[in-house]
Write a structure and sequence with these properties.
This protein has 11 helices and 12 strands. With 345 residues, it is α+β, with helices and mostly antiparallel strands. Strands 1-2-3-4-5-12-6-11-10-9-8-7 form a 12-stranded mixed β-sheet, sandwiched between helices.
Length: 345
Amino acid sequence: MPLYRINPLSDERWLSLLAAHPGASTFYQPGWLKTLTDTYGYKPFALTSTPAGKPLEDGVAFCEIDSWITGRRLVSLPFTDHGEPILSADARLMLADWLRSESRHGGWKYIEMRPLTWQTSPVEDGTESQSFWLHTLKISGSLDDVFRAFDKDSVQRRIRRAEREKIAVEKGCSEEQVNDFYRLLIGTRKRHHLPPQPRSWFTNLFKNMTGQAELRIARKDGIAIGAIVSLHTGTNVIYKYGCSDEQYHRFAPMPWLFWNLIMDANAAGAESLDFGRTDLDNAGLIRFKDQFGTVRTKLTYYRFANKAVRKPAPSTSGALTGRLFSLVPDRISCKVGEILYRHMG
């Protein structure tokens, strides 16, 4: 059986497929794919075993990346923590055949898959690329039970501190709010020795994922001191971006923002909060996420490479890291991000 290529941005069957699978990746949503296209010029497509004219039964999404720095690649999906294929066992076998053939003869440097559970076998020619920790938290049921699972010192106490300090939390994506968020993001990325993502990425994200992408800002006496961006589809909530002003950390804006997100998501019927991927050697961030009582699992990406060019592409956590980005003016760091991020998906 063949696999058919469709455009998930224009084929109405794609949305119906996602609606029929409550656990489908939030990153498969057309809004996320359109944001990748609008910001970086990536070309999304999906593969399915369903021929034209029939309701989709399965699918897996990719983006084409054509970069003179990192090479011509297929990624499922760029700037995405994970994207589990919606495939039956038979369709997965067909995808394995397609990956093996396309990686050898399609002219790609490599094809990368970022599944949650699907693993390749040696016969498929897939090799482990990168691994991360993925933290998830059950947030359905009693909020008291959720709160009791938090570390008493590092999370519970700090949430109560933020409450006593009357740290306000607001939701929205007005230009002023996005400006406040982006200012905090620049400072946070600078502390981590990284350039910020282009501002256009967030403008496009809130435009394309209206009702699915949410921005929360913590304020002390009207001053923005922390912010998080989360993605919502069905019963799934994903924490995607976070930033804060270091001089206000004593007021615990980040634990307070997470607790507000959890309370809102619980009230809306969400079942779990995905805290996103974490580098295996990032002890501080791992500890922070562990302290919420999360379950930690290994997340592994797989590459199907043209054996003539096995060298991995540079990543924003490797090649871009350095003290340079903590020293240059913000406007230069932002410009560097605008130029380089499209090559790093």
